[in-house]
Amino acid sequence: MGVRVRYSPSPSGSQHMGSARTALFNWLYARHHGGTLVLRIEDTDQSRSRAEHVENLCRTMRWLGLDWDEGPEVGGPHAPYHQMGRLAHYQNALDTLLSRNLAYPCYCSPDELRQRREEARGAGLPPRYDGRCAGLTAGQRAEFESRGIRPAWRLRVSVDGETVVQDLVRGRVVFANRTLDDFVLMRPDGVPTYNFAVVVDDMEMEITHVLRADEHLANTPKQLLVLAALGRTPPRYGHLPMVLAADRSKLSKRHGAVAVEEFREMGLLPEAVVNYSALLGWSPADGRELLTLDELREAFDLDRVGASAAVYDVTKLLWMNAQHLRRLEPAEVVRRAGPWLRQAGLPDGDPEQCERITAVVGLVRERIQTLAELPAAVAYFFRDPDSYDAAGARKFFGPGAVSLLRLAAERVEAIDPFGEPEMETAYRRLAEEQGVKPAVFIHPTRLALTGRTVGPSLFALAAGLGKGVCARRLRAAADWIAASGPAVDAGD
Description:
Shape: elongated
Number of helices: 21
Largest sheet: 3 strands, antiparallel
Radius of gyration: 32 Å
CATH topology of the largest domain: Rossmann fold
Helix content: 40-55%
CATH superfamily of the largest domain: HUPs
Strand order of the largest sheet: 3-4-7
Strand content: 5-15%
CATH architecture of the largest domain: 3-Layer(aba) Sandwich
Number of strands: 11
Distance between the termini: 76 Å
Protein backbone atom coordinates (compact mmCIF):
# COMPACT_ATOMS: atom_id res chain seq x y z
CA MET A 1 0.00 0.00 0.00
CA GLY A 2 1.23 3.49 -0.80
CA VAL A 3 1.36 6.43 1.58
CA ARG A 4 -2.04 7.48 2.95
CA VAL A 5 -2.22 10.48 5.28
CA ARG A 6 -5.12 12.44 6.66
CA TYR A 7 -5.86 15.97 7.75
CA SER A 8 -8.72 15.87 10.24
CA PRO A 9 -9.74 19.29 11.57
CA SER A 10 -12.65 20.11 13.83
CA PRO A 11 -15.10 22.50 12.08
CA SER A 12 -15.38 24.88 15.01
CA GLY A 13 -13.84 28.05 13.54
CA SER A 14 -11.30 29.50 11.15
CA GLN A 15 -8.12 27.74 10.07
CA HIS A 16 -5.41 28.63 12.59
CA MET A 17 -1.80 29.03 11.43
CA GLY A 18 -0.83 25.83 13.26
CA SER A 19 -3.70 23.88 11.68
CA ALA A 20 -2.80 25.16 8.22
CA ARG A 21 0.80 24.05 8.81
CA THR A 22 -0.45 20.56 9.71
CA ALA A 23 -2.56 20.44 6.55
CA LEU A 24 0.42 21.58 4.49
CA PHE A 25 2.85 19.02 5.92
CA ASN A 26 0.37 16.21 5.24
CA TRP A 27 -0.16 17.48 1.70
CA LEU A 28 3.59 17.76 1.08
CA TYR A 29 4.25 14.28 2.44
CA ALA A 30 1.48 12.73 0.35
CA ARG A 31 2.47 14.53 -2.84
CA HIS A 32 6.20 13.95 -2.35
CA HIS A 33 5.58 10.20 -2.10
CA GLY A 34 2.82 10.00 -4.71
CA GLY A 35 0.37 9.09 -1.98
CA THR A 36 -3.18 9.96 -0.93
CA LEU A 37 -4.42 12.80 1.26
CA VAL A 38 -7.73 12.24 3.07
CA LEU A 39 -9.62 15.25 4.41
CA ARG A 40 -11.74 14.08 7.35
CA ILE A 41 -14.02 16.25 9.46
CA GLU A 42 -14.03 15.57 13.21
CA ASP A 43 -17.43 17.00 14.12
CA THR A 44 -18.40 15.06 17.23
CA ASP A 45 -18.43 18.30 19.24
CA GLN A 46 -21.88 19.27 17.99
CA SER A 47 -22.06 22.37 20.19
CA ARG A 48 -19.25 24.00 18.16
CA SER A 49 -19.35 22.30 14.76
CA ARG A 50 -20.94 24.28 11.92
CA ALA A 51 -21.50 23.50 8.25
CA GLU A 52 -20.23 26.96 7.31
CA HIS A 53 -16.93 26.17 9.04
CA VAL A 54 -16.53 23.11 6.81
CA GLU A 55 -17.21 25.24 3.75
CA ASN A 56 -14.69 27.82 4.92
CA LEU A 57 -12.16 25.08 5.64
CA CYS A 58 -12.45 23.70 2.10
CA ARG A 59 -12.29 27.20 0.62
CA THR A 60 -9.17 28.00 2.65
CA MET A 61 -7.46 24.76 1.64
CA ARG A 62 -8.13 25.46 -2.03
CA TRP A 63 -6.92 29.07 -1.66
CA LEU A 64 -3.64 27.71 -0.30
CA GLY A 65 -3.39 25.38 -3.29
CA LEU A 66 -3.88 22.22 -1.19
CA ASP A 67 -6.18 19.69 -2.83
CA TRP A 68 -7.26 16.37 -1.34
CA ASP A 69 -7.99 12.96 -2.84
CA GLU A 70 -10.80 11.81 -0.55
CA GLY A 71 -13.18 13.78 1.63
CA PRO A 72 -15.81 16.54 1.45
CA GLU A 73 -16.64 17.79 -2.05
CA VAL A 74 -14.69 14.96 -3.73
CA GLY A 75 -16.06 11.80 -2.07
CA GLY A 76 -14.12 8.54 -2.01
CA PRO A 77 -14.32 4.83 -1.14
CA HIS A 78 -14.41 5.40 2.64
CA ALA A 79 -17.30 7.85 2.82
CA PRO A 80 -18.72 9.42 4.85
CA TYR A 81 -15.78 11.63 5.79
CA HIS A 82 -17.38 13.34 8.79
CA GLN A 83 -17.52 11.53 12.11
CA MET A 84 -21.18 12.13 12.96
CA GLY A 85 -22.03 10.20 9.82
CA ARG A 86 -19.92 7.26 10.98
CA LEU A 87 -21.52 6.43 14.33
CA ALA A 88 -22.41 2.91 13.19
CA HIS A 89 -18.71 2.25 12.45
CA TYR A 90 -17.74 3.15 16.01
CA GLN A 91 -20.52 1.00 17.46
CA ASN A 92 -19.30 -1.98 15.40
CA ALA A 93 -15.76 -1.49 16.71
CA LEU A 94 -17.07 -1.23 20.28
CA ASP A 95 -19.05 -4.44 19.81
CA THR A 96 -15.82 -6.16 18.75
CA LEU A 97 -14.08 -5.03 21.93
CA LEU A 98 -17.04 -6.11 24.06
CA SER A 99 -17.04 -9.54 22.46
CA ARG A 100 -13.40 -9.89 23.53
CA ASN A 101 -14.12 -8.58 27.05
CA LEU A 102 -11.72 -5.69 26.37
CA ALA A 103 -14.29 -2.99 27.11
CA TYR A 104 -16.98 -2.59 29.76
CA PRO A 105 -19.85 -0.25 30.73
CA CYS A 106 -19.28 2.44 33.35
CA TYR A 107 -22.24 3.88 35.26
CA CYS A 108 -20.33 6.46 37.31
CA SER A 109 -21.81 9.94 37.11
CA PRO A 110 -19.70 13.02 36.21
CA ASP A 111 -20.04 14.28 39.80
CA GLU A 112 -18.82 10.98 41.22
CA LEU A 113 -15.85 10.95 38.88
CA ARG A 114 -14.99 14.54 39.75
CA GLN A 115 -15.12 13.82 43.48
CA ARG A 116 -12.85 10.77 43.15
CA ARG A 117 -10.31 12.74 41.12
CA GLU A 118 -10.20 15.39 43.83
CA GLU A 119 -9.78 12.72 46.51
CA ALA A 120 -6.92 11.13 44.56
CA ARG A 121 -5.16 14.46 44.20
CA GLY A 122 -5.61 15.10 47.88
CA ALA A 123 -3.93 11.78 48.64
CA GLY A 124 -1.05 12.60 46.30
CA LEU A 125 -2.15 9.99 43.73
CA PRO A 126 -2.65 10.41 39.98
CA PRO A 127 -6.30 11.22 39.21
CA ARG A 128 -6.96 7.93 37.41
CA TYR A 129 -10.30 6.21 37.08
CA ASP A 130 -10.32 3.56 39.80
CA GLY A 131 -11.95 0.87 37.66
CA ARG A 132 -14.80 0.18 40.06
CA CYS A 133 -17.24 -0.64 37.23
CA ALA A 134 -14.83 -3.07 35.57
CA GLY A 135 -16.00 -5.99 37.67
CA LEU A 136 -19.75 -5.36 37.89
CA THR A 137 -21.92 -8.44 37.71
CA ALA A 138 -24.76 -8.80 35.26
CA GLY A 139 -27.18 -8.18 38.14
CA GLN A 140 -25.46 -4.98 39.19
CA ARG A 141 -25.53 -3.71 35.62
CA ALA A 142 -29.20 -4.54 35.37
CA GLU A 143 -29.84 -2.53 38.53
CA PHE A 144 -28.23 0.56 37.03
CA GLU A 145 -30.14 0.06 33.78
CA SER A 146 -33.44 -0.25 35.64
CA ARG A 147 -32.83 3.20 37.12
CA GLY A 148 -32.45 4.65 33.63
CA ILE A 149 -28.70 5.18 33.90
CA ARG A 150 -27.04 4.90 30.52
CA PRO A 151 -23.37 3.84 30.67
CA ALA A 152 -20.25 5.16 29.08
CA TRP A 153 -17.96 2.46 27.70
CA ARG A 154 -14.34 2.09 28.80
CA LEU A 155 -11.31 0.19 27.51
CA ARG A 156 -9.64 -2.25 29.89
CA VAL A 157 -6.06 -1.05 30.32
CA SER A 158 -3.41 -2.99 32.21
CA VAL A 159 -1.35 -0.93 34.66
CA ASP A 160 1.66 -3.14 33.96
CA GLY A 161 4.33 -2.46 31.38
CA GLU A 162 4.71 0.48 29.04
CA THR A 163 3.50 1.72 25.69
CA VAL A 164 6.16 2.89 23.24
CA VAL A 165 5.62 5.43 20.46
CA GLN A 166 8.23 5.28 17.70
CA ASP A 167 7.71 8.85 16.62
CA LEU A 168 8.91 9.98 13.19
CA VAL A 169 9.91 13.38 14.60
CA ARG A 170 10.72 12.81 18.27
CA GLY A 171 12.09 9.30 18.11
CA ARG A 172 11.28 6.75 20.82
CA VAL A 173 8.81 8.06 23.42
CA VAL A 174 7.85 5.79 26.33
CA PHE A 175 4.66 5.99 28.40
CA ALA A 176 4.26 3.95 31.58
CA ASN A 177 0.88 2.23 31.53
CA ARG A 178 0.38 3.07 35.20
CA THR A 179 -0.10 6.71 34.14
CA LEU A 180 -3.06 5.71 31.97
CA ASP A 181 -6.48 4.50 33.04
CA ASP A 182 -9.48 2.70 31.64
CA PHE A 183 -10.38 5.64 29.43
CA VAL A 184 -13.79 6.23 27.88
CA LEU A 185 -14.40 5.02 24.33
CA MET A 186 -18.07 5.88 23.94
CA ARG A 187 -20.18 8.38 25.84
CA PRO A 188 -23.67 7.55 27.13
CA ASP A 189 -25.24 9.39 24.17
CA GLY A 190 -23.56 7.03 21.70
CA VAL A 191 -20.99 9.58 20.50
CA PRO A 192 -17.38 8.32 20.53
CA THR A 193 -14.52 10.09 22.26
CA TYR A 194 -11.67 11.49 20.19
CA ASN A 195 -9.25 8.68 21.01
CA PHE A 196 -11.70 6.04 19.87
CA ALA A 197 -13.14 7.71 16.78
CA VAL A 198 -9.79 8.62 15.22
CA VAL A 199 -8.50 5.09 15.70
CA VAL A 200 -11.50 3.53 13.99
CA ASP A 201 -11.34 6.09 11.18
CA ASP A 202 -7.59 5.69 10.66
CA MET A 203 -7.99 1.92 10.69
CA GLU A 204 -10.88 1.77 8.22
CA MET A 205 -9.46 4.47 5.95
CA GLU A 206 -6.14 2.59 5.83
CA ILE A 207 -4.08 5.55 7.03
CA THR A 208 -0.37 4.70 6.95
CA HIS A 209 1.08 7.87 8.50
CA VAL A 210 -0.44 10.24 11.05
CA LEU A 211 1.24 13.67 10.99
CA ARG A 212 -0.32 15.97 13.56
CA ALA A 213 0.42 18.62 16.16
CA ASP A 214 2.72 17.87 19.08
CA GLU A 215 -0.15 18.42 21.53
CA HIS A 216 -1.61 15.08 20.42
CA LEU A 217 1.45 13.08 21.47
CA ALA A 218 -0.12 12.30 24.85
CA ASN A 219 -3.12 10.76 23.06
CA THR A 220 -0.99 8.36 21.04
CA PRO A 221 -0.45 5.64 23.69
CA LYS A 222 -4.22 5.45 24.21
CA GLN A 223 -4.76 5.08 20.50
CA LEU A 224 -2.10 2.40 20.27
CA LEU A 225 -3.87 0.49 23.04
CA VAL A 226 -7.18 0.66 21.17
CA LEU A 227 -5.51 -0.56 17.97
CA ALA A 228 -3.87 -3.42 19.85
CA ALA A 229 -7.22 -4.38 21.37
CA LEU A 230 -8.76 -4.43 17.90
CA GLY A 231 -5.85 -6.50 16.60
CA ARG A 232 -4.73 -3.93 14.04
CA THR A 233 -1.29 -2.67 13.01
CA PRO A 234 -0.89 1.00 13.89
CA PRO A 235 0.09 3.71 11.42
CA ARG A 236 3.41 5.53 11.78
CA TYR A 237 3.07 8.64 13.95
CA GLY A 238 4.89 11.92 13.58
CA HIS A 239 4.16 14.81 15.94
CA LEU A 240 4.94 18.23 14.54
CA PRO A 241 6.45 20.96 16.71
CA MET A 242 4.09 23.53 18.18
CA VAL A 243 3.80 27.01 16.69
CA LEU A 244 4.30 29.59 19.43
CA ALA A 245 4.18 33.38 19.61
CA ALA A 246 7.39 35.43 19.80
CA ASP A 247 7.14 35.45 23.62
CA ARG A 248 7.02 31.62 23.54
CA SER A 249 3.39 31.60 24.70
CA LYS A 250 0.57 29.79 22.95
CA LEU A 251 -0.40 31.57 19.75
CA SER A 252 -3.66 33.52 20.10
CA LYS A 253 -5.61 36.52 18.86
CA ARG A 254 -3.64 38.87 21.09
CA HIS A 255 -0.59 38.24 18.90
CA GLY A 256 -2.37 39.65 15.83
CA ALA A 257 -3.67 37.77 12.81
CA VAL A 258 -3.26 34.02 13.28
CA ALA A 259 -5.99 32.62 11.01
CA VAL A 260 -5.48 31.97 7.31
CA GLU A 261 -8.74 33.78 6.59
CA GLU A 262 -7.30 36.90 8.23
CA PHE A 263 -4.13 36.63 6.16
CA ARG A 264 -6.23 36.56 3.02
CA GLU A 265 -8.17 39.63 4.14
CA MET A 266 -4.87 41.41 4.85
CA GLY A 267 -3.85 40.94 1.23
CA LEU A 268 -1.28 38.21 1.73
CA LEU A 269 -0.56 35.82 -1.12
CA PRO A 270 -1.25 32.10 -0.66
CA GLU A 271 2.24 31.41 -2.02
CA ALA A 272 3.73 33.38 0.86
CA VAL A 273 1.50 31.84 3.54
CA VAL A 274 2.39 28.34 2.31
CA ASN A 275 6.09 29.17 2.05
CA TYR A 276 6.19 30.66 5.54
CA SER A 277 4.11 27.85 7.09
CA ALA A 278 6.46 25.24 5.64
CA LEU A 279 9.41 26.81 7.43
CA LEU A 280 7.69 26.60 10.82
CA GLY A 281 9.54 23.55 12.03
CA TRP A 282 11.08 22.39 8.74
CA SER A 283 13.89 23.59 6.49
CA PRO A 284 15.19 22.38 3.14
CA ALA A 285 18.64 20.83 2.94
CA ASP A 286 19.97 23.70 0.83
CA GLY A 287 18.82 26.38 3.28
CA ARG A 288 16.59 28.26 0.83
CA GLU A 289 13.89 30.50 2.27
CA LEU A 290 11.81 31.40 -0.79
CA LEU A 291 10.16 28.35 -2.32
CA THR A 292 7.10 27.71 -4.45
CA LEU A 293 4.61 24.99 -3.55
CA ASP A 294 6.10 22.75 -6.25
CA GLU A 295 9.60 23.32 -4.87
CA LEU A 296 8.38 22.54 -1.37
CA ARG A 297 6.79 19.33 -2.58
CA GLU A 298 10.04 18.19 -4.16
CA ALA A 299 12.20 19.12 -1.15
CA PHE A 300 9.97 18.04 1.74
CA ASP A 301 11.38 15.35 4.02
CA LEU A 302 10.25 14.39 7.52
CA ASP A 303 13.88 13.89 8.51
CA ARG A 304 14.28 17.68 8.44
CA VAL A 305 11.29 18.40 10.70
CA GLY A 306 12.59 19.50 14.09
CA ALA A 307 11.19 18.66 17.51
CA SER A 308 11.61 22.17 18.96
CA ALA A 309 8.71 24.61 18.89
CA ALA A 310 8.56 27.02 15.96
CA VAL A 311 8.01 30.75 16.53
CA TYR A 312 5.48 32.72 14.51
CA ASP A 313 6.95 36.04 13.35
CA VAL A 314 4.51 38.28 11.49
CA THR A 315 7.36 40.57 10.39
CA LYS A 316 9.05 37.65 8.63
CA LEU A 317 5.74 36.62 7.09
CA LEU A 318 5.18 40.12 5.66
CA TRP A 319 8.74 40.22 4.34
CA MET A 320 8.22 36.89 2.63
CA ASN A 321 4.93 38.09 1.16
CA ALA A 322 6.70 41.12 -0.30
CA GLN A 323 9.27 38.82 -1.95
CA HIS A 324 6.56 36.68 -3.56
CA LEU A 325 4.67 39.81 -4.60
CA ARG A 326 7.71 41.01 -6.53
CA ARG A 327 7.88 37.70 -8.38
CA LEU A 328 4.44 38.21 -9.93
CA GLU A 329 3.88 39.92 -13.25
CA PRO A 330 2.36 43.41 -12.81
CA ALA A 331 -0.87 42.36 -14.52
CA GLU A 332 -1.22 39.43 -12.09
CA VAL A 333 -0.66 41.76 -9.13
CA VAL A 334 -3.48 43.98 -10.40
CA ARG A 335 -5.77 40.99 -10.93
CA ARG A 336 -5.24 39.68 -7.42
CA ALA A 337 -5.57 43.14 -5.88
CA GLY A 338 -8.95 43.62 -7.55
CA PRO A 339 -11.07 43.60 -4.34
CA TRP A 340 -8.92 46.27 -2.70
CA LEU A 341 -8.71 48.38 -5.84
CA ARG A 342 -12.49 48.33 -6.22
CA GLN A 343 -12.95 49.21 -2.57
CA ALA A 344 -10.71 52.23 -3.12
CA GLY A 345 -12.73 53.34 -6.14
CA LEU A 346 -10.17 52.20 -8.72
CA PRO A 347 -12.24 49.98 -11.04
CA ASP A 348 -9.84 47.32 -12.16
CA GLY A 349 -12.53 46.01 -14.49
CA ASP A 350 -12.12 49.07 -16.73
CA PRO A 351 -9.56 48.00 -19.39
CA GLU A 352 -8.01 51.45 -19.67
CA GLN A 353 -7.83 51.89 -15.91
CA CYS A 354 -6.44 48.39 -15.50
CA GLU A 355 -3.77 49.11 -18.10
CA ARG A 356 -2.77 52.29 -16.30
CA ILE A 357 -2.59 50.56 -12.93
CA THR A 358 -0.53 47.75 -14.42
CA ALA A 359 1.87 50.27 -15.94
CA VAL A 360 2.71 51.77 -12.53
CA VAL A 361 2.77 48.62 -10.41
CA GLY A 362 6.45 48.15 -11.21
CA LEU A 363 7.18 51.59 -9.76
CA VAL A 364 5.55 50.98 -6.38
CA ARG A 365 5.86 47.23 -5.87
CA GLU A 366 9.18 47.52 -4.04
CA ARG A 367 7.47 49.65 -1.39
CA ILE A 368 4.47 47.49 -0.55
CA GLN A 369 4.20 44.22 1.34
CA THR A 370 0.59 43.20 0.71
CA LEU A 371 -2.07 43.48 -1.98
CA ALA A 372 -4.13 45.62 0.39
CA GLU A 373 -1.43 48.31 0.25
CA LEU A 374 -1.52 48.63 -3.53
CA PRO A 375 -4.46 51.08 -3.84
CA ALA A 376 -2.82 53.64 -1.57
CA ALA A 377 0.50 53.13 -3.31
CA VAL A 378 -0.93 53.90 -6.78
CA ALA A 379 -3.66 56.39 -5.79
CA TYR A 380 -1.64 59.50 -6.65
CA PHE A 381 -1.22 58.27 -10.21
CA PHE A 382 -4.97 58.70 -10.66
CA ARG A 383 -5.98 61.51 -8.29
CA ASP A 384 -4.45 64.85 -7.47
CA PRO A 385 -3.33 65.08 -3.83
CA ASP A 386 -6.04 66.45 -1.57
CA SER A 387 -3.50 67.13 1.18
CA TYR A 388 0.24 67.19 1.76
CA ASP A 389 2.25 65.35 4.38
CA ALA A 390 2.37 67.81 7.28
CA ALA A 391 5.99 67.22 8.27
CA GLY A 392 7.02 67.31 4.63
CA ALA A 393 5.18 70.58 4.06
CA ARG A 394 6.91 72.21 7.01
CA LYS A 395 10.27 71.11 5.66
CA PHE A 396 9.92 71.54 1.89
CA PHE A 397 7.05 74.00 1.36
CA GLY A 398 8.66 77.13 2.81
CA PRO A 399 8.00 80.58 1.34
CA GLY A 400 10.71 80.14 -1.28
CA ALA A 401 9.04 77.03 -2.63
CA VAL A 402 6.33 79.03 -4.43
CA SER A 403 8.66 80.47 -7.05
CA LEU A 404 10.66 77.24 -7.15
CA LEU A 405 7.61 75.10 -7.99
CA ARG A 406 6.33 77.55 -10.60
CA LEU A 407 9.73 77.61 -12.24
CA ALA A 408 9.74 73.81 -12.22
CA ALA A 409 6.28 73.72 -13.83
CA GLU A 410 7.50 75.92 -16.69
CA ARG A 411 10.52 73.72 -17.23
CA VAL A 412 8.39 70.55 -17.20
CA GLU A 413 6.07 71.97 -19.86
CA ALA A 414 9.08 72.65 -22.07
CA ILE A 415 10.32 69.05 -22.02
CA ASP A 416 9.72 67.35 -25.37
CA PRO A 417 9.65 64.42 -25.63
CA PHE A 418 8.63 63.85 -22.01
CA GLY A 419 10.01 60.80 -20.24
CA GLU A 420 12.09 59.65 -17.29
CA PRO A 421 15.58 60.49 -18.65
CA GLU A 422 14.40 63.81 -20.14
CA MET A 423 12.80 64.81 -16.83
CA GLU A 424 15.97 64.00 -14.89
CA THR A 425 18.18 65.91 -17.34
CA ALA A 426 15.91 68.96 -17.21
CA TYR A 427 15.81 69.02 -13.40
CA ARG A 428 19.52 68.65 -12.95
CA ARG A 429 20.12 71.39 -15.48
CA LEU A 430 17.58 73.62 -13.73
CA ALA A 431 19.30 73.09 -10.38
CA GLU A 432 22.65 73.92 -11.95
CA GLU A 433 21.27 77.12 -13.45
CA GLN A 434 19.88 78.17 -10.06
CA GLY A 435 23.10 77.29 -8.29
CA VAL A 436 21.50 74.78 -5.94
CA LYS A 437 21.64 71.04 -5.37
CA PRO A 438 19.08 68.95 -7.33
CA ALA A 439 17.46 67.95 -4.00
CA VAL A 440 16.24 71.53 -3.59
CA PHE A 441 13.90 70.91 -6.54
CA ILE A 442 13.40 67.14 -6.15
CA HIS A 443 11.96 67.05 -2.60
CA PRO A 444 9.27 69.73 -3.00
CA THR A 445 8.41 68.36 -6.44
CA ARG A 446 7.79 64.86 -5.03
CA LEU A 447 5.56 66.31 -2.32
CA ALA A 448 3.67 68.41 -4.87
CA LEU A 449 3.10 65.46 -7.21
CA THR A 450 2.16 62.82 -4.64
CA GLY A 451 1.38 64.54 -1.33
CA ARG A 452 4.11 62.34 0.20
CA THR A 453 7.79 62.57 0.96
CA VAL A 454 8.73 59.01 -0.01
CA GLY A 455 8.03 56.86 -3.02
CA PRO A 456 9.62 55.51 -6.18
CA SER A 457 12.12 57.44 -8.26
CA LEU A 458 10.77 60.95 -8.82
CA PHE A 459 11.60 60.92 -12.51
CA ALA A 460 10.02 57.51 -13.08
CA LEU A 461 6.80 58.48 -11.32
CA ALA A 462 6.72 61.83 -13.20
CA ALA A 463 6.96 59.91 -16.46
CA GLY A 464 4.06 57.76 -15.28
CA LEU A 465 1.96 60.81 -14.46
CA GLY A 466 2.64 62.63 -17.73
CA LYS A 467 3.72 66.17 -18.51
CA GLY A 468 0.33 67.83 -18.15
CA VAL A 469 -0.46 66.29 -14.76
CA CYS A 470 3.00 67.14 -13.40
CA ALA A 471 2.79 70.78 -14.46
CA ARG A 472 -0.74 71.15 -13.06
CA ARG A 473 0.15 69.63 -9.68
CA LEU A 474 3.31 71.74 -9.37
CA ARG A 475 1.28 74.91 -9.87
CA ALA A 476 -1.47 73.70 -7.52
CA ALA A 477 1.08 73.12 -4.79
CA ALA A 478 2.57 76.59 -5.35
CA ASP A 479 -0.90 78.12 -5.06
CA TRP A 480 -1.58 76.12 -1.88
CA ILE A 481 1.65 77.37 -0.29
CA ALA A 482 0.87 80.96 -1.27
CA ALA A 483 -2.63 80.72 0.21
CA SER A 484 -1.37 79.09 3.41
CA GLY A 485 0.73 82.10 4.31
CA PRO A 486 2.27 82.07 7.79
CA ALA A 487 0.84 78.60 8.50
CA VAL A 488 3.66 77.08 6.44
CA ASP A 489 7.09 76.97 8.01
CA ALA A 490 10.28 76.29 6.08
CA GLY A 491 11.59 74.18 8.94
CA ASP A 492 15.24 73.54 9.72
